[in-house]
Amino acid sequence: MTAIETTGLTKRYGHDVYAVNDLSLTVEEGEVFGFLGPNGSGKSTTIDVLMDYVRPTAGSATVLGYDAQTDADEIHQRVGILPDGYSLYDRLSGRKHVEYAIRLKDAEDDPDAILQRVGLAADAAARPAGTYSKGMSQRLALGMALVGDPDLLILDEPSSGLDPDGIRDIRELTLEHAESGGTVFFSSHILSQVEAICDRVGILDDGRLVTVDTIDGLRDALGAGSTITVTVDAPPSGLAFDDVAGVSSVVVDGDEIHATCTEPTAKLAVLDRIRETEHRILDFDTRQSSLEDLFSAYTHPTDDRPRTEGRP
Amino acid sequence: MSWRVIARKEFEDAVQSRLLWGVVAFVAVMVSVTFLIPLLVPALDSGVLAALGGASEFASMLVPIVALVAAYLAIAGERESGSLRLLLGLEPSRRAVVAGKFVGRSAVVVVGLTVGFLLAGVVAWAVYGTVPAGAFLGVLLLTDALGVAFVGIAIGISATSATRSRAMTIGIAAYLAFALLWDLIPQGAHLAVFGGPPGASAPAWFVFLQGASPTGAYSALVMNAIHATDPSYPAATTVLDGPVPFFVEWWAFAAILVAWTVVPLALGSIAFERADLN
Fold this sequence. Notes:
heterodimer, A: alpha/beta, Rossmann fold, Alpha-Beta Plaits, 2 domains, four-stranded antiparallel sheet, 12 helices, 14 strands, B: mainly alpha, about 75% helix, membrane (chain B)
């Protein structure tokens, strides 16, 4: 069964502001899915539609087979949500928050067990949530999401405001949930946070889904690529690398030339091509491409989308 | 049945934040003072019934403020802060949220008004030596009903407002309209029809218009309730010359008060259910 399915999902504000644009996405049950994109790319809006906080302009969404708009009740019984932009009840203690969640969900959980799972000590849980740091708030909100043993966990930027310990705890809880057969939908604007735990990732940019793949698939798409950065004496002109075999993209930035190479030998060919001109090479540097490069290539397509022409 | 869970939390919150005790103290002091005014001003009729009537007139100005303040942020406040996003993650039915908020805040206002009124009743009993139990109880229940009506109005406003400031603006406008400006409608209509203000007698439609606001309906019902204990005290329809038409019977005013509770609540609930909450 599919955990999340959106078909042509579109959310438009005003006449021409598209928060989400024709998004079609399928997340299978039991999967840990990373939903990646820069801030403002439409991740939270997509989640808001799944949770029926906002209604789509066009298209549809189902969660665990239920329609997000008409069956919100069924969905919320089976989903734990750590939303973006939430706030806690300042006067209510952490423990009272969890108790409230248990009563609202009509669940059987033990509040202390939940608090322990998310690493909130008993004395911290007894304090009003208004005194909490961002990290403690995030742990408490995650605890509330875990109430009722949901089939699907939707975590919107769960790592924001957390220290490395907190990020590791989130990772462990996520994997624990997946091992027990649950699905996790994990949004982030930082690739490295989803890289280690996600089976697949979808990259969203400006409301559009630009790619969906496994982490390995993304690595393959990246190839054994590397980047050579050459600094020349003056902003280069009249340079073309179209016919250099093994160069996938070139970006010129001031007096620096960044060439992405799919074959190791191409790097030397790039240097040779520059030396054929009147430009003098001052320095050069090579480095292995990372997934971050790929992510930024997808989400900043005007800078250096793979396989596009270098700017003159 | 999660509206019950929400209502209970709202009530506990009000106890914890001392909102409830604020309401109790405010109502007890203000109503006690109005009970004493007829004694301090020798020109006024100094009977305990007149004092009760005076207290209810004062309550018709006071209770809307208490109820609006106690409830106008119930939903808009959570919406602006973002805690609504957690709440709706746990209970997606927005109708249940509106119902829970309404019941919880109503309970706060009813308990606050009742305890405050009873304390004021003790003061009145100490001063006058007697309190007409029937009339006092009637006025108390009607005051509670007025409080609930304004909680309905406040929750309706809160459900339609995306921000605190908007809820406050509409809340203040509603208070001015109901508690202060409404009387201009029957007076203006009377002036337009008869060329002057009403004298000792007035037409039935004038009585109806006066009682068509929540506070107007409350005042009419209070007059009828006190009149029922002591026929020398005027009823809402005493100013009528001829027969009493059905639309100024006591139950018409009761229906008006119920409508003022339910209609804003329903409209707010519908608007809230359709809103994008982000």
